[in-house]
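Recall the central idea of this unit: under ordinary conditions, the amino acid sequence of a chain determines the structure it adopts. In this exercise we apply that idea directly, starting from the sequence alone.
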Amino acid sequence: MRKGLGKGLGALLDSENILVGTSALSELKINEIVPNTSQPRKNFDQDKLKGLAESIQKHGVVQPIIVKKEPDGYSIIAGERRWRAARMAGLKTIPAIVKDMSSLEIMETALVENLQREDLNPIEEAEAYQKLIDEHGLTQEYISKLVGKSRAYIANSVRLLSLSDKVRKMIVEELLTPGHARTLITIEDEEKQNKLASYITEKKLSVRETEEYVKKQTNKKEKSKSSPKISDPSVLEIEEKLKSYLGTKVNLQHRKNKGKIIIEYYSNDEFERIVDLITNK
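Accordingly, the structure predicted from this sequence is:
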């Protein structure tokens, strides 16, 4: 697998390295530049953008943006927030570095830049990881090394995309933390997911309290579907511990000192993540 950009990106984004002794620095017309379609960041805080625009009006654009030459202009590789603020400030041109990069390199650069500056919300981050997997065939292991996160972190991030639209929106709006939201992943019914999410925010439950509440609701559902025979509480407790540890649906069937454990997974990466957890890799 080709070496990632994570290690060298600091040099690429370092304003001192860009401003001193580089022939690639250009002053480009703002209206000839367009955002990068692979930009993982979709939401820009307007108040912060206005603050940056005011700073640019006083001091100019201190750090150039990075762009790629296109047939009809330029597309942004890194620095879309500065470009937006410069437009807001009324600038006609902006300092830029022109780089020739592949679509994968551009997406990796945009992702790492935003993660380094903590500009992505959890859903944007998850969507960026999933796009690298779907469109470029990267593994969660490779992505984890690229962005300096653990593989489990990448897997848990991507799993947020299985939540309902409403729950994902609540995460973006910071009404629900990813930790709270992950407790809802094993609930397949979207309407029930939404109701539980609203209840969690209304009652201001902690993550631990949320886990306990969701566990009770899940147990009620399972009891209503099962036979009248009462399940062994110790077996149910073990099943819940397995669900929490593995982060997926688990069905533990136990009768007379024998039975089976059914663990569900929804992708090859999810399968490998679960295997790693079980084998302690």
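Residues 229-281 form one domain.
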